[in-house]
């Protein structure tokens, strides 16, 4: 049975941020899917638990008949990695963090870093945080995208979310028996990559922007394949 690469987007983005890598993996003969987290906030709080349930259900359904799930979490999805791995319920799960924060092994992990939460509180209107592309109106995320088409696709996925979601914490969990690895793209995640290497995880750097999966999907797919093998 072959591995299934489950490419989990940041909660503030969507499938478009991973689709080019999924296509590159498929072209290389790998099984890949991108779950959609859209709508996890529809039923009200607790939002983190609803996100985990929604994402894990899609991955578990796609993983039937799969030898191993390689759970790839990007950016803010890192906080949910252990909870997702546990909820998927596959016989073997490996986790690769792609420019993502690391969840704690004990206690709980904030959905958003405490240092960044004040910014979200400032830009929220009536308890709703605007879509991610509007978070930085002065700088803007335009430089992260290789083409206007890529930008349009990612921005179409972005949606407003309740401020209360970003104020939640995710329960801690155990690192899955299948192992973990780290794929670094941008300087902002160097501390997380350093922590991963201190834990003895295999790690690789592909210098680029935070949305490097859009810029160099084939290279990212190759790196994920190598890290998945190293996790074993």
Tell me about this structure.
With 232 residues, this protein is of the alpha/beta class. The chain has 9 helices and 10 strands. The chain has helices at 19-27, 47-62, 81-88, 117-123, 148-157, 163-166, 190-198, 212-215, 217-231, and strands at 3-8, 31-33, 68-75, 93-100, 108-110, 128-129, 161-162, 169-171, 180-184, 203-205. Strands 2-1-3-4-9-10 form a 6-stranded parallel β-sheet, with helices on both faces. Strand 9, helix 7 (190-198) and strand 10 form a beta-alpha-beta unit. The radius of gyration is 16 Å and the shape is globular.
Question: Which terms summarize this structure?
Answer:
single chain, 232 residues, alpha/beta, 6-stranded parallel β-sheet, two-stranded antiparallel ribbon, 10 strands, 19% strand
| Percentage of residues in DSSP E strands | 15-25%
Summing up helix and strand content along with how strands pair, one would put the structural category as alpha/beta
**Beta strand count:** 10
Low-confidence stretches: none
Spatial separation of the terminal alpha carbons? 15 Å
Q: Which whole number gives the mean pLDDT?
A: 94
Order of helices and strands: EHEHEHEEHEHEHEEHEHH
Approximate helicity band? 25-40%
Instruction: Walk across the major sheet and give the strand order.
Output: 2-1-3-4-9-10
Tally the helices: what do you get?
A: 9
Radius of gyration over C-alpha positions, nearest whole angstrom: 16 Å
| Shape summary | globular
The biggest beta sheet reads: 6 strands, parallel
């Amino acid at each position: 049975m072959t591995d299934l690469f489950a490419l989990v987007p940041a909660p503030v983005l969507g499938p478009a941020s991973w689709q080019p890598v999924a296509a590159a993996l498929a072209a290389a003969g790998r099984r890949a899917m991108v779950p959609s987290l859209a709508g996890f906030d529809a039923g009200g709080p607790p939002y983190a638990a609803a996100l985990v349930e929604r994402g894990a259900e899609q991955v578990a359904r796609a993983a039937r008949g799969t030898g191993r799930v390689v759970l790839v979490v990007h950016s803010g999805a890192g906080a949910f990695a252990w909870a997702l791995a546990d909820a998927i319920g596959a016989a073997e799960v490996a986790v690769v963090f792609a420019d993502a924060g690391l969840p704690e092994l004990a206690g709980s992990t904030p959905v958003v870093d405490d240092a960044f939460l004040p910014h979200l509180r400032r830009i929220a209107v009536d308890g709703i945080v605007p879509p991610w592309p509007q978070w930085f109106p002065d700088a803007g995320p335009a430089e992260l995208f290789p083409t206007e088409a890529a930008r349009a696709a990612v921005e179409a996925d972005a949606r407003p979310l309740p401020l209360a979601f970003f104020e939640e914490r995710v329960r801690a969990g155990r690192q899955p028996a299948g192992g973990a690895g780290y794929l670094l793209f941008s300087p902002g995640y160097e501390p997380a990559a350093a922590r991963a290497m201190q834990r003895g995880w295999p790690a690789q750097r592909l210098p680029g922007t935070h949305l490097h999966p859009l810029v160099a999907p084939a290279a990212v797919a190759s790196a994920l394949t190598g890290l998945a093998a190293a996790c074993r």
